[in-house]
Specification:
about 15% strand; 5-stranded mixed beta sheet; about 325 residues; elongated; single chain; 13 strands; alpha+beta
Length: about 325
């Protein structure tokens, strides 16, 4: 999918997932009077679980071919485990601080916002956890995976802070004007969770796109408009389902037609010894070539463009 759609789906799925998390929280057989610490911890846990699952799947589908169902499921499960457990811890700590500082003005509110910022941070960081684990297991460079986790963490923290702040504003301004059931305003609570999930999803998506280092875009050919961030040491392109960028339905493209490797901060394109060849700016690739921002890569009927945040003149 394109980066614009990626951001859109991150925001949309984050909002819907948060609403589902809020609804599940309403089903908990725990009251705030009996166990406030436990209740808030579980609410944060459910938010982290649903939002991390939604964003993990959006991220996986945007980076992994749909045929690799197991990989997509594992990426989503990894995000869920880290995101939900991190949210549980931050929710419990935030509620504990609020209880201990009830007599101090604004400290409880600040603690609430900070706890949601930490929740967003952990959800964002969880998106890079699977790639970090794979890099460790295969003894490959961790740089790209760590950068992805850091970018997600930055976006999630800002989104959690913004969403947590807006949630407080909504609560104070809407709680008095909406019907109350058993002393708890329903709509402000649900709307607050939706805003929180939307902000976390939106900012994580924005951070991943804005802070990306390099990417390729399908300008012409199979599913033109797709964009793929280059976060791995090696990105494969071809007709095989295992390729990172699949270009199907073109017999002029081999199963693994070309590879883009990251070497010492540069992106190197190598042809897979194909009969039809790989071309960069209409020049056939005989030896591996260093890509520069704006380069056009042609494989069969497909044309890709290479983008990089730092343009190189040498």
């Amino acid at each position: 999918m394109s980066f614009r759609l990626f951001i859109y789906y991150c925001a949309l799925c984050g909002a819907w997932a948060a609403l589902i998390g809020w609804f599940l929280g309403r089903l908990l057989p725990i009251t705030e009077d009996e166990h406030p610490l436990l209740l808030q911890g579980f609410k944060a846990f459910l938010l982290g679980l649903t939002v991390a699952l939604a964003l993990g799947l959006v991220d996986a589908i945007s980076n992994v071919p749909l045929a690799r169902v197991v990989t997509i499921a594992l990426r989503g499960a990894t995000a869920v485990v880290l995101g939900s457990l991190g949210a549980l811890a931050s929710g419990v700590i935030g509620e504990y601080v609020q209880q201990k500082t009830q007599a101090v003005p604004y400290v409880g509110e600040i603690a609430s916002v900070v706890s949601w910022a930490i929740t967003g941070l952990l959800i964002g960081a969880s998106l890079g956890a699977f790639e970090i684990a794979v890099s460790l297991a295969t003894s490959t460079n961790l740089r790209g995976a760590i950068r992805k986790g850091v970018n997600g963490a930055i976006g999630g923290m800002v989104g959690g802070f913004l969403g947590g702040s807006l949630r407080l504003v909504l609560w104070y301004f809407l709680a008095r004007s909406i019907a109350v059931t058993q002393g708890e305003p329903l709509s402000p609570s649900a709307l607050g969770f939706v805003v929180l999930g939307l902000c976390i999803g939106l900012l994580i998506g924005l951070a991943q796109v804005i802070l990306k280092e390099a990417w390729i875009k399908v300008e012409a050919g199979f599913r033109a408009g797709r964009e793929l961030m280059l976060t791995k040491d090696e990105t494969t392109i071809g007709r095989a389902e295992a390729c990172d960028l699949g270009l199907y339905g073109d017999n002029a493209i081999d199963r693994v037609h070309a590879r883009i490797k990251r070497v010492n901060g540069r992106y190197i394109l190598a042809d897979g010894e194909t009969k039809t060849g790989t071309f960069v700016n209409d020049q056939r690739v005989v030896q591996p070539v260093t890509l520069r921002a704006g380069d056009k890569i042609r494989l069969g009927k497909s044309v890709l463009s290479f983008g990089e945040r730092k343009k190189r003149d040498d």
